[in-house]
Every structure is written in C-alpha cells, then in structure tokens.
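Example record

One chain of 327 residues, shown exactly as stored in the release files.
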Amino acid sequence: MKKTMRVALALTTSLTAGSALAETVTIGHFGNPTPMQVARAEGKFEEATGWDIEWRKFASGSEVIAAMASGDIKLAELGSSPLAIATSQGVDLEMFMLAQVLGSAESLIARDGSEIETLEDLSGKRVAVPVGSTAHFSLMGALDHAGVEASDLTLLNMPPDQIAAAWEQGAIDAAFIWQPVQNQIAETGTRLATSADTAEWGYPTFDGWVVNAAFAAENAEAVTAFAKTMDEANAAYLADPAAWTPESEPVQTIAAETGADAAQIPTILEGFTFVPLSEQLGETWLGGAPETMRSTAQFLKDAGRIDRVAEDYSGFVNTEIGTAATQ
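Predicted structure tokens for this chain:
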C-alpha cells in the first residue's frame, strides 16, 4: 500500500514538474475560420511543440506589428501588407510559411442604396477598411486600377467589428474586409472586387506566419514542429474539401472556435488558397517573398503609407524551418 502511494506520489510530482517546465508562448492569430482552428481546438500545437500556448486574437496587422516590435509576442499570423510595413521599419521578424493566400476571402462590398455600382463610383463616398491591413493594400490597388485617388473618398480606419456596426447604422457606403464580416455585410450589399481581382491587377496579398528571429534560433525544433502541424491541418482540408460540409465535425469545430456561421464556413474556406508547405519553398512563394515585400513596400511608400523601402528583404524570410518541417 505504502509502495503504491509512493509510486503515485512520484508520478504526480513528475507530471507537475513537467508541466511547470513547459514554456508559455503567446501566439497571435486573426481568428480566421480556417483548418488550423481544428488543430488548435484539439491541442495539436501544444502536443507537437511542448509549449503551453496562449492564443491571442488580433483585429489587424498593425496590432500584430506593435506586439512583435515590443517583444510581447514572438510568433504570429501577419498579412502581406503589414508584413511589408514591419520589415521596412526593421522589426525583428522572419516569415517562415504562408497561412493562406487571399482570394475572395477579402472583398470590397458596396452597401445597397449607396449608389455605388463601379469602382469609379467610390469617389465622394465613405469607405471603411482596417488601415495597414491586406484589405487596405487591396483597396488602394483597386483604386489605382480604376484611376481613383484615395483623396477623392473619405477613408475610415475601422476594425472588423466596427465595420459591421457602422454598416448596420448606414454610417459607411462601402468596406473592404475579410470573413466573416464580409459575408455579414454582403447580405445587404454588392461585391465590387475581391483580393483575387486585385492580385490579377498586380497587388497580390496573403497571410503568413512570422517569428522573432532570435526566438526561432533558440527554439528551432519547436517552431519546426509548429510549421509541420500547421501544414498537416491544411492538408486535412485539401485531402477532401467537399467533405467539409456545414454538418461535418471539422466545420462545427471551426464554428465553435471562431463564432463563424457553420453554414457559411465551406464557402469561406473556398475563398482561401492553402498551399502545401513543400510547394511554398519554391520561387513562387517563399523564394519570391523578398521581392513581393519590396514591391508591396514600394507601392505603400508611393501611396504615402510608409517613409522608406529597404534595399533587401531576403533577411526577413526563413526557409530553413519549412525545409526541416517537410523532411
């Protein structure tokens, strides 16, 4: 009896000590209704990395930049436009994989009754967007494509929840925003353009995963395990997208984690492009990321959004993590 108690006590002490030794890591994300939410709900990231993870939801890339710059978080999801802003400002981070390529997941919606039927009709209207986000970059690209000056309209800087509220109050005429708010406002609006359209016009956007360079070097195995788990989560969806119906367990889990309507999630997922990590390592994605950052930064500088463009962005891309994760 005493021996059994001693063994049980030793086991409890060992487990408690192991838990105490687990490093607490805060990871920033946008709460998008994507496959990673399933792995997050199942605790797969904690299991793979050994971290005690605190998931922190951010409303915009500018918030992520501030948190990364201050050292408050070490790993986060970040859109391509704020990524270009952060790297141009010299924030110590490295992009190590794509989260998703943005297509119809971000769109410009004109409110019914606003008398906006074309991009040119945005002149003189109130247009909301989270400033500094990928949606903001896409909006500026759409205006440039249409030959409309940003100064010709009233640009309102709002996070998604405020856009939804302002829309209901009739306080804005149009908004460029992501899911699930996009679907919400589209019920009483018309889609003018998507991020897929602006990409064709020369303004591509994506969400990527970034990490503090020193943290990545000190935690190489864990960050690699994080990337591998993320890739596996996306692969589960890519294996059979049609199986992710509103009633399916993965979609129900995503709905529970994000608050998105399960009935809309399959369509939302179709609006993203999830690129397998092995394909990301080529020139199209991570290989070409430094040039994408530079061209995005140049556009933002020309638009008066940032003050400088760096000479070389290659130091802000880490392909070693992805390479290790796919072996």
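Notes: The chain has 16 helices and eleven strands.
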